[in-house]
Input
Amino acid sequence: MAEPVRSCVVALEINGEQVELEVPARRLLVHFIRDDLGLTGTHIGCDTGNCGACTIHLDGEPVKSCMALAVQADGGTITTVEGLSADGELTPLQQAFNAHHALQCGYCTPGMLMSASALLARNPRPTEDEVRYALQGNICRCTGYVNIVEAVVAAGGGA
Amino acid sequence: MLLPEVEYARPATVDEAVSLLATHDGARPLAGGQTIVNVMKARAGAPDVLVDLADLHELRSIGFSSDGRLEIGAMVTYAQLMASSEVDVARPILAEVAATIGDVQVRNRGTVGGNVCVSDPTNHLPPLFAALDATFTIRGQSGERTVSSEEFFVGVYMTAVAEGELLTKVNVPASSGAGDGFAGLTIGKHGTYIVNAAASVSGGAARIAIGCVGATPVRATEMEERLAGGDFSEDSARAAAAGLGASLDPPSDVHGSADFRRHLAEVSAVRAVIQAAGRRKR
Output
């Protein structure tokens, strides 16, 4: 039987690369990503699961990495904001954020991009209402959301 | 935030999970983690061992029993409820309500078992399952038992699931043409409920449960009795709800006084009953 342990090896794929690292059981996934792997594009905002700045894709679905343990992601596939653009070119979504001035301080942007890219993956031409529903878990203190919603709708080809 | 030190185990079978929970002091199940991780951050609780249920695939399924009950595994996520064809056929209200819990990210991780086992009085599913007359199957080392929602919800953050036990599934009776409704008032769109009410109307009978007004869901039994004649018009529902608020002892807080909650309980119950009655299949 699996006996409880204080630390264990986490093996997962992140942005196309395999990593394997022993971590304490209490290590949050967001700290694993930022501190152990050095991928600091994923932000910590509220650290209480409300703001969505730490959103990543785990097995293709957006989740908040401050509300998961690193050990829970063992065997999984993760994409962070660094992994959105494989070849260094901005994705159409990122270009839309630029064109529509969808960020001011930029702190929430990685989480916004991860939630929006997950939406576009399953619904390539979302309406404004669908975008707002999909971004409910991401808080922005600067923009008032209007330009963010416009950018995501535009990235989907909508007006 | 740094969590307190904790041990971790990821069992491969339900029996192994139950055994881990029963043999280690301070062991707690880890389902989606959308509550317990924050509880640990806030130092409101410090389990010694987390028993991760992630690999228990039998707890992730939604299906029907031989007698037509909808069986929902404890590890089924809100996102799964929303996408399930079984839920859509049998009890679409579950998908409808799940779609208003938390946000996309929380719905991808949060589970049915977690929602009911936390037994937070403002959670969505406890009053809904109470109105649907659901039962709860609990596994322990000595075997399995199934309890009603009245027995399951014991108090704030307390359920019938004892130390060393595990909720494995929630069973919802076959709908048999019943219509279900859910209404209430939230803090912001899709936010925490101030008061909610769930109703299930089958033939001429209604089953109604109110949430956020006590430690556990409160059945509106007097209102149910007054509606037993089968008249679910707005006038009839309003008349039946009269006095419901006065029978409750809800809390007062920054979001609403106890009297406001008494008022909301009546309004929510009426709306849930009208919605449920309109959805019956005749």
